[in-house]
Amino acid sequence: MKIVDVCAFYSPRGGGVKTYVGQKLAMAQRMNQDVTILAPGDKDAVVEFGPCARIQTIASPRFPLDRKYWYFNDERALHATLDRLSPDFVEASSPWRSPLMVANWRPGVPKALILHADPLSAYAYRWLEPLVSRKTIDRRFVRYWDHLRQLGRLYDAVVCASEDLASRMKAGGVGNVVTVPMGVEAERFSASKRDPVIRESLLAQCSLGPDATLLVAAGRLAPEKRLPMLVEAVTIAGRHRPVGLVIFGEGREDTSVLRSIGGNPHIRLFRPERDRERFASILASADAFLHGCEAETFCMTAAEASASGIPVIVPDRGGAADFAGGEFGWSYRAADHLDLVRAVLTLPDCFTTRGNGFAARAMDDHFGALFAIYQRLHKSELPLAA
Fold first, then answer.
1. CATH 3.40.50.2000, the chain: domain bounds
2. Residues 119-176 pLDDT 10s
3. All residues at 6 or more sequence positions from 83 whose CB lies less than 8 Å from its CB, including other chains
4. How far apart are CA 12 and CA 307, in angstroms?
5. Strand 53-59 relative to strand 45-50: parallel, antiparallel, unpaired?
6. Structural domain 191-353, CATH architecture
7. What is the CB-side half-sphere exposure of residue 54 using CA atoms within 13 A?
8. Which of 178, 221, 264, 318 qualifies as a FRET site for 245, CA 20 to 30 Å off?
């Protein structure tokens, strides 16, 4: 089957969507699919990743609030490119304007919307929930809910990666919602990647000895990730026990994160680790993974940390919350830095009590399930099981 993924959130400079795209392209040939990632970029270009996998960009403007991203602004150019590619199935992955552009192209071709973003949690709830109830916020944002309900009518499937997001979409009246959890590269992330040398080196860079607790966080430095909250909580926790935090990421909030760290020698901000093997070793060598964002649609890094055999400390809302269950997962009240301090201080001596790795869903299973849904829609085998 020939699939085109109109991927508005792709950036070659990293992020969870880039990781996901790379895994999708790697799976394409193995699963007998032809996949084109169609993304906005600085110029029209095609980069081949194999006979059945490629990234094609359409010349588009940069997103003004984050210059490492672009956005589709020319519906005719998008439709002309889709005409040339002539796919059997089309994905869209933005909840904003581009899925309407995609829906307008050949309505008879089956299409799925993958919710790689949750703007209500990332913006509306985050900004306003301290002041008013979520029900009130939803009433105020009824036009956006109307937009989501329209997309549910236009697309044959609205794919969510977590039950938290899927249940909210269904409760809001969005149709054709299906849940397809993502997964990890099972062969890469494992407790077997633990390396005490890496652990001691990172703790030393935090001016701490090997008896301290090493926490790790990773991802885009964006407001909804709440990195300053993590820094504040670890700073408070550090008054009660030796604890260090290493953050791997980049983004428009780097100045804010550095300002929140201030002169704390036990918290360090590093550039993203592009070497996936080394990143897997860093995760497995830490004592726990820390996350601040309650607006995740899945939370790839939490899944990777769980598969690496370390505890995760995550908000009790959003996709990351799925990894808080069991012996090696803790949740705290989303956006509550004092409850996060409590969670950090309840960590046992993790380096001696960790597990062998959470039995995370493999990405092969995710894409197998996703492509099976697409095949059924392509053959008009409806309805889908929710």
1. 2-183+363-378, 191-353
2. 999 999 999 998 999 999 999 999 999 999 999 999 999 999 998 899 999 999 999 9
3. none
4. 25
5. antiparallel
6. 3-Layer(aba) Sandwich (3.40)
7. 13
8. 318
Residue 330: in which H helix or E strand, if any? strand 329-332
Q: What is the pTM of this model?
A: 0.87
The whole-angstrom separation of Cα 317 and Cα 137 is: 17
Over the stretch 208-250, which tens digit does the pLDDT of each residue have?
999 999 999 999 999 999 999 999 999 999 999 999 999 999 9
Environment class of residue 380 by beta-carbon count within 10 Å: exposed (0-12), middle (13-18) or buried (19+)?
Answer: exposed
Report whether CATH 3.40.50.300 matches the domain 2-183+363-378.
no
Distance of CA 317 to the CA centre of its chain: 14
Cα–Cα dist 68/38, whole Å: 16
Coil, strand or helix at 293: coil
| Strand 312-315 relative to strand 111-114, pairing | unpaired
